[in-house]
Amino acid sequence: MGRTLDSRAHVTRLLQRTGFDAVPDAVDAARKAGFEATLERVLTPTGADRGADATPAPEPGPLPARNSETQQKRAQKSGDGTEPKKPGDDPVRKHYREVLRQQREELTQWWLERMVAAEHPWVEKRTLLWHNHWATSIQKVKSAAAMLQQNETLRRLGGGDFRELARAMVVDPALMVWLDADGSVAEAPNENLGRELMELFVLGVGHYTESDVRQAAAALTGWTVDRRAHPWKAHFKPRRHDQGQQTVVGETADFSARTLIDHLVSLPDSHGHVATRMWGALVSNENKPSKTALARVTAAYGQQRDTKAMFRAVFTDEAFADADNVLVKQPVEYVVGSLRALGVHPSALPQKARRQLLTRTLTGLGQTPFAPDSVGGWPAGAAWLTTAAAQVRITFAQQLVRHAELGDVAAAATTERPDLLARKLGVGAWSAATREVLRAAAHDPRKVTAVALTAPEHLVLS
Asked: What is the pLDDT of residues 309-348, one digit of tens each?
């Protein structure tokens, strides 16, 4: 156990890790109210969220045809139903791709705007955590409507019983398509969903066997995705299901998708897996929870699989107040936190500026919502601190300050600007080296703010 944070640093950490920023007024109010009261307010927000309500979700329409009739006939003549070898020449396919690109960009920008605008940011931060946990990418799913439907499921169920969330996700159309579960039948069960369900989503590595994977895959047969519906819907077709009993992780039954989930999430290894993954995202990616801490968090999670109680236990563990448990900001946290700290709402910007600040920045940094790299989610820790990423952040900072209202920085004395920016960005203190660079740039409000946005101290969740 290292140095314990003082009261101000402790609530600052809480606000940053349950949201995206820690502006001075919010920190002052949290310090006055106390850590426990602030935590309860965060976990159990009251009243409407005017910011979130002002950012209604888009309504992606059905996608146009993917191929022209000529291309479809050529595919049928190939004998195997594959698409033409040169679909780029098909104007119908080009139109399909453009509509999909537009819907994807609209969806991504909507969620980022919602994160910036939210008055109860924990709801959005929690949704982002679950998105990384149940990582699904539009790159393969190719349906903004299906990805939005999944996003709403994660938001609605992400603060309650993990069993209810897992029940919904195992038959989520986007996840089913992503993991090839659509159309898995008794004669040829697809093992992808069953494997990832146990390895990543519910149990963790080492707590199941290859036989368990095969048996779980059999239990999940019979489910299909109706892609003619808008949005897509999952349907169960009993005739395609592998009837009879399966043995999965020590229990034999005629499992359905629902009862399979109920069994898996009831196992102690599941409790520990979910708690450990959330610990890595909220406390420390490098320092795993001690046996005592893990026992405490899983006890709070309990047989009711209460994720809210689990999060409360994580935030009140003594390790959460350990000054050494610093987390590197993921790109979405960095971008959204910077926008919130400077009061810049993407929706108020021209589309070109919005695309530069959001889409291009996050693409360059390697983390775009709705498009994780793999089913394992995005990397964590120092993986984000590359030379290429540093240049992207510099460009982002220079563009952001052009759109920010920096009257408070301009009104402050030159010598006071570094400390003002530390408070504005939720930084406890600048290092001697950073302070020197800030002093050299302090004569120019925009330049010094851009420097602060790219300083090492702003790249971490303190």
From this structure: 999 999 999 999 999 999 999 999 999 999 999 999 999 9
Q: Helix (H, G, I), strand (E, B), or coil: what is residue 233?
A: strand
Question: In Å, how far are 136, 279, 365, 404 from 103, measured between CA atoms?
Answer: 16, 34, 21, 27
Provide the number of structural domains found in the chain.
1
Query: With 60 as the cut, is the pLDDT of residue 57 above it?
Result: yes
In a domain, 357, yes or no: yes
- The tally of CA atoms less than 13 A away on the side-chain side of residue 396 is 29
- Containing domain of residue 449, as a range? 328-461
User: pTM surpassing 0.85?
Assistant: yes
Tokens of 277: 């993954």
Residue with tokens 């929706």: 347
Q: How many CB atoms lie within 10 A of CB 360?
A: 15
DSSP-derived pairing of the beta strands 246-248 and 223-226: unpaired
Q: Is residue 388 part of a domain?
A: yes
Angle (deg, nearest 10), helices 268-282 and 121-133: 120
Q: CA 57 to CA 19: how far, in whole Å?
A: 20
